[in-house]
Every structure is written in structure tokens, then in C-alpha cells.
């Protein structure tokens, strides 16, 4: 059966709303370019009535941040019995929580930086100074601090000296109630996207990220021209194979579906270290997933169409 009515969900109320809207517009345009009828909708108070009164053949969520990636919207789509592209709710919840995802992939045999997760309450109740001293003794320096949930590098920062850690924690808690503090591994930052074709996950070419000042923050991610992207990443064949293996392993171990993007650091020895996974990759003009699709000589609209078609049938 041909797709006759597709909804792309974008927007929402997270910190990443504007990025999601840009992603949604790009995906909708890409689908129209391959003759798929598309309706672009926000995740607002009108959504349920719209989906109930005119159920689409399938939905492609490009919602970023909470609700979009924590499984909540997908729970609603399942309640309405509407097919959708992407991981199911339970898998989203595990992937969305970075410490949980790290535990799962570590059990699957992947390397991931040593870390500690601290809720804001514990951090304050036990005495911030004492807790931070113990973190530095245990994990060493440098460190990377980021919210346990969230994306787009919001609230994330590198800590190279112990004196920088308190400010990094405060910045992190501005975007979430818990912080993940992990060892910072020097190396090549890459992202490996995965799409499923005929039910089998396949890795796309790795995208190497060369950010200004070595810091791939929110501005570097979404302001065109600020960051250099190299596709395929400048890795040895052995390192590239390890990165591909890591992304596909993470996709499978976390029970993901249809598409994902795994962020990795490849160290000087060519070892790939898992950082986090994204179940709703960005689709903007500077996002990594579309770059990987293009590098694989694929068309973004055709890829999205095929994923939607697989859910519809």
C-alpha cells in the first residue's frame, strides 16, 4: 500500500524546540520531494484531536528532548494504534537516560568512559565540596559534565582543572536534575548513524566532528559554518570497523528500531568509546544524520519514506 497521509511531529516544549522545528521542516520538505503527502504538526494541545479525527498512515517523530525522546509521545501513538518510525517507548526510556544506556552497552561489551551520576539533591545534601573532591580523586582529570538526560550539548562542559568543576555542575543543573560526570577521553569525536533496511541495522559512514576550539556545543552544532564535518571520518580501516561495530551493537543492545545515532570518541589507539545514543537524530542542515545519509549516496526523503512505509505495511 502507498502512503497517503503522513504526519511529521516536531516542536514540543523542550529546550530543543527550535532545533526540532528545523528538523521537522527539513524532513517534511524531503518527503514532499519524493511525492509523499506530509502534514507537519506540533506536539501541542491540538495533536490528539487531529490524530483521532484524521488518523495518518504513519508518523515520523522528530521531537528532541523530553517527551520527544523519553518515550512519552510514542506511548500516546501506541494508545491510538498509529504506526510510527523509531524506537518503542521502553527502549526510548533506557536510551534517554545516559547512565542506564552506558550500563546496557557496557554489558554488551562496548567501552564507555568511567562515570558517576549525581542527582542535584545528593550533590547538595552530602556537601558539594566533599563530593567533588572524591569525584576528582576517583575519576581524575579531565572530566566531562552533562545532564543525565537531554541533548544538543545543553548543560555540558569539559573540566580540565578541579577548580572548574563547581561551575560545570551548576551549569549542568540548569538543564536537568541530575549530572553525569565522566572521564574525558581525548580523541576524534565521531557520530555513527544506523538505519534498518529489511529489518537489519546498517551503519552509515562515520561523521567526524571538528568543532571550533574543540568544543562541540549548542552553537557549534546548529550555526552553519562554525564546525567542520568530515565524511567519512579520517579513521584507519580498523578504527572505522570498531566504530561501526559499536554503533550497531548499541542499537541492538538497547532494543532500538528503524534509526539511531551513536556518539563516540576514538582514542589514539583506535578504540571506540561509547558516549551516548540518540533515538531521534537531528535533521537540520548541520545535523549529523543527514550528512551520513548523503555520504552513503542515499536520499534523505527516500530513507524517511522507506522507514515510514515499513511501519505502515
Overall SS class = alpha+beta
User: Using only CA atoms, what is the Rg?
Assistant: 19 Å
Order of helices and strands: EHEHEHHHEHHEEHEEEEHEHEEHH
Fraction of residues in β-strands: 15-25%
Q: What is the number of strand segments?
A: 13
Number of helices: 12
Largest sheet: 6 strands, antiparallel
**Shape, principal axes of CA atoms:** globular
Pathway: Cell wall biogenesis; peptidoglycan biosynthesis
InterPro entries: ATP-grasp, ATP_grasp_subdomain_1, D_ala_D_ala, Dala_Dala_lig_C, Dala_Dala_lig_N, PreATP-grasp_dom_sf
Family: Belongs to the D-alanine--D-alanine ligase family.
EC number: 6.3.2.4
Question: What attributes characterize this protein structure?
Answer:
alpha+beta, globular, 313 residues, six-stranded antiparallel β-sheet, four-stranded antiparallel β-sheet
Give a quick rundown of the structure.
This protein is α+β, with helices and mostly antiparallel strands and 313 residues long.
Description of the molecule:
The chain is α+β, with helices and mostly antiparallel strands and 313 residues long. The chain has twelve helices and 13 strands. Mean pLDDT is 92; it is low at 216-222.
List the helices and strands and how they pair.
Layout: E1 6-10, H1 17-33, E2 38-42, H2 47-53, E3 58-61, H3 72-79, H4 89-96, H5 98-107, E4 115-119, H6 120-125, H7 128-139, E5 143-147, E6 157-159, H8 165-173, E7 178-183, E8 188-197, E9 200-203, E10 207-210, H9 218-222, E11 228-230, H10 237-253, E12 259-266, E13 272-278, H11 288-295, H12 300-312
Helix pairs in contact: 1-12
Amino acid at each position: 500500500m502507498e502512503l497517503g497521509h503522513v504526519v511529521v511531529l516536531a516542536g514540543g516544549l523542550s529546550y530543543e524546540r527550535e532545533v526540532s522545528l528545523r528538523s521537522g521542516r527539513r524532513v517534511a520538505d524531503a518527503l514532499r520531494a519524493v511525492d509523499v503527502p506530509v502534514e507537519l504538526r506540533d506536539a501541542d494541545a491540538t495533536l490528539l484531536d487531529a490524530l483521532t479525527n484524521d488518523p495518518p498512515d504513519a508518523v515520523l517523530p522528530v521531537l528532541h528532548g523530553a517527551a520527544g525522546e523519553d518515550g512519552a509521545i510514542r506511548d500516546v501513538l501506541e494508545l491510538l494504534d498509529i504506526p510510527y518510525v523509531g524506537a518503542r517507548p521502553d527502549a526510548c526510556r533506557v536510551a534517554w537516560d545516559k547512565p542506564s544506556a552506558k550500563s546496557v552497552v557496557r554489558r554488551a561489551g562496548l567501552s564507555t568512559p568511567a562515570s558517576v551520576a549525581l542527582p542535584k539533591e545528593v550533590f547538595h545534601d552530602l556537601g558539594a565540596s566533599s563530593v567533588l573532591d572524591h569525584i576528582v580523586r576517583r575519576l581524575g582529570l579531565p572530566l566531562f559534565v552533562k545532564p543525565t538526560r537531554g541533548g544538543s550539548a545543553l548543560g555540558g562542559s569539559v573540566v580540565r582543572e578541579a577548580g572548574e568543576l563547581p561551575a560545570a555542575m551548576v551549569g549542568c543543573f540548569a538543564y536537568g536534575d541530575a549530572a553525569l560526570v565522566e572521564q574525558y577521553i581525548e580523541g576524534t569525536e565521531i557520530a555513527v548513524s544506523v538505519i534498518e533496511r529489511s529489518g537489519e541495522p546498517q551503519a552509515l559512514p562515520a561523521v567526524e566532528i571538528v568543532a571550533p576550539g574543540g568544543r562541540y556545543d549548542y552553537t557549534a552544532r546548529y550555526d552553519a559554518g562554525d564546525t567542520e564535518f568530515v565524511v567519512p571520518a579520517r579513521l584507519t580501516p580498523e578504527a572505522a570497523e570498531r566504530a561501526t561495530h559499536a554503533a550497531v551493537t548499541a542499537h541492538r543492545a538497547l532494543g532500538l528500531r528503524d534509526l539511531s545515532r551513536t556518539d563516540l570518541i576514538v582514542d589514539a589507539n583506535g578504540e571506540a568509546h561509547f558516549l551516548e545514543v540518540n533515538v531521534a537524530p537531528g535533521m537540520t542542515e548541520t545535523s549529523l544524520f543527514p550528512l551520513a545519509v548523503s555520504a552513503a549516496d542515499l536520499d534523505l526523503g527516500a530513507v524517511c519514506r522507506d522507514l515510514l512505509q515499513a511501519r505502515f505495511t
